[in-house]
Structures are given as C-alpha cells and as structure tokens.
Amino acid sequence: MLVFRGYSRPAPQATALTIGNFDGVHLGHRALLARLKAVAQREQLLPAALTFEPHPREFFAPESAPARLSTLREKLEMLAEEGVGLACVCHFNTGFAHLEAEEFIERLLVGCLRVKHLIVGDDFRFGSKRRGNFSMLQEAGRHHGFTLESVTSVMIDGVRVSSSAVRAALAEGRMEDAARFLGRPYVIDGRVVQGRQLGRLLGVPTANIRIKHTNPPLVGVYVAEVHGLANGPHRGVANIGFRPSIDRGTNPILEIHLFDFDGDIYGAHLSVRFLHKLRDEKKFPDIDALKSQISQDLESARQYFTH
C-alpha cells in the first residue's frame, strides 16, 4: 500500500475514494471498504482512503478526546489488509481545521487524490466549521466529474457499529461484544522491551511490550492470545494498566505471561489479542496477596481455554 503524508502530490492514477478516521477499522468501516474495493475493481480505479492524524477530537478537545482503538501504524496495516491501495494521511492541525469545504474538495479530493468515485458515510461532514455535506459533494461531483454514494450504518442487535460502541464495550469489559463489532478480538501491537524483571521475582515471568497508547481503551487483567512468535499463537494472561501494587506509573504498561513458554523474545513485534476480561487492576496490601491473585488469574485463564 502506498502512503501519502499530506496532499502535496497527485495520486499515481484516478481513485475510488473513501474518507474517515477509521479508528479500530470495525465492521462498519470494513463494509465501506469492501464496497470501495468492488467499485475500484469494476471501474479500474485505485482504491484509496483519506484519514487524519491526530483524530480531530484530539485536536479540538485533547482533555476529553476518546481513547484510541488503534495507533496510526495499526490502522494503516488494517487498511492495507482490507485492500486499500493508497492511504492519504492528513496532519490535522490549525491550518487543516480552517480549510474551507470548497478548498478541501479542490485540493484534496480532485487535485491530490484524483477522485472519480467517492464513498462516504451517511453522516459525513467536512471543512471549516463542518460546513461541507453530502449535497455539496453532489454539486462538486457534477462540476469536477466524479460520482458519489453514501453507505448506511451497520447494525448488530439494534446497536449501530461505531468506534464509540467498541470503546464502550472495551471499557465495560464486554470483550465478546467488542469482538462482534470489530469482527475480530481487540488487538494491541508492540515490541518486547527490557523490563524490571518483576514478573520473575513474583514467579511469573512476563514480556513487557512497548505500546504507543497513552490512553488505552481498556485497563485490567485479560485472557489473551499472542501472535508473532514461532509455533504460535500462544496463550496467556495480559495485564494492561499502571501496576498500582508495584510502582503506580503514569504511563500504561502492557505485560503478558505466556503459558508453557520459555524463550528470549526481546525485540519481537507481537500482536496481543484480548479475549476475556478477568478483573480490574487493584492495589494489593502486600506481595503475598498479589501472588495469590496472580495464581487465581492464571488458573481462570487456563479454564477459559479449556472450556
């Protein structure tokens, strides 16, 4: 997949284009991307996606911005898996936020992305003060020579599939619901780094995984499955959070204990799939109480896989 940073150069060919934040690339996004790929194949166009970094809500209200479901790297990897051939990542800053809707169309859609068919969600707005809408795109399409369609929301059991719905399910520990909305278990990727060896002192060695999520959408102890190692996937227990019984840091840490595994995996890039929530993080009165709880967590996770 070709990745553009900004919109200073034209796409190598005319595109079928869709636009969105694509946080988490859930089933609603995937339905839209499937339609994009089908149109691109039919019309012999390049399937392209326009997305933003950071999330616009992180720019306008960073103190109340939602937790990220996926990092930019994770999002781009998932877009590529769904058949996107060109991803245009626009830096959402003051200048971009004040871009007029007409300029958005002329510079990005027509000038950079050479759009011939545009697919957007049924609630898409764009440009300064969100003035741009579907009817404006229809008029622009007649003028610039591109066609336009909207896609409706995907519903599951009466719930509109959205990034917000996924975040709510993760925050409430409803991992099965989150997986249904995503079409797969929730995943965080990261590289194994040197830790403080505290897991070994507790009798449970863990791999410490560097993550870029400063505000993760889930915190606690989870049954997990790890991909990225030989002879995998490997099962285990993951803890993501701030370790209140150890040092109560300010940055979240992801640790994973793998069942029946003994190997040097420093530097490996792993994907951790969160399958089931065991409990919230909590502060224990002493190390013995923490060890006892860890033992219960491991047994509960093994029973999960058995059943």
Task: Please explain how this structure is put together.
The chain has 307 residues and is an alpha/beta fold. The chain folds into 2 domains: 2-159, HUPs (Rossmann fold, 3-Layer(aba) Sandwich), CATH 3.40.50.620; 185-306, Riboflavin kinase-like (Elongation Factor Tu (Ef-tu), domain 3, Beta Barrel), CATH 2.40.30.30. The protein has 10 helices and 14 strands. The chain has helices spanning 27-43, 56-60, 72-81, 94-97, 101-112, 134-144, 163-171, 175-182, 198-201, 287-306, and strands at residues 2-5, 15-19, 46-53, 86-91, 115-121, 147-151, 155-156, 159-160, 186-193, 207-210, 220-227, 234-241, 253-258, 269-279. The strands form 3 sheets. Strands 1-4-3-2-5-6 form a 6-stranded parallel sheet, with helices on both faces. Helix 1 (27-43) links the parallel strand 2 and strand 3. The chain is elongated and about 70 Å long. The two termini are 40 Å apart.
Q: Layout of helices and strands, plus pairs?
A:
Elements: E1 2-5, E2 15-19, H1 27-43, E3 46-53, H2 56-60, H3 72-81, E4 86-91, H4 94-97, H5 101-112, E5 115-121, H6 134-144, E6 147-151, E7 155-156, E8 159-160, H7 163-171, H8 175-182, E9 186-193, H9 198-201, E10 207-210, E11 220-227, E12 234-241, E13 253-258, E14 269-279, H10 287-306
Parallel strand pairs: 1-4, 2-3, 2-5, 3-4, 5-6
Antiparallel strand pairs: 7-8, 9-10, 9-14, 10-13, 11-12, 11-14, 12-13
Helix pairs in contact: 7-8
Describe the structure concisely for a colleague.
The protein has 307 residues and is an alpha/beta fold.
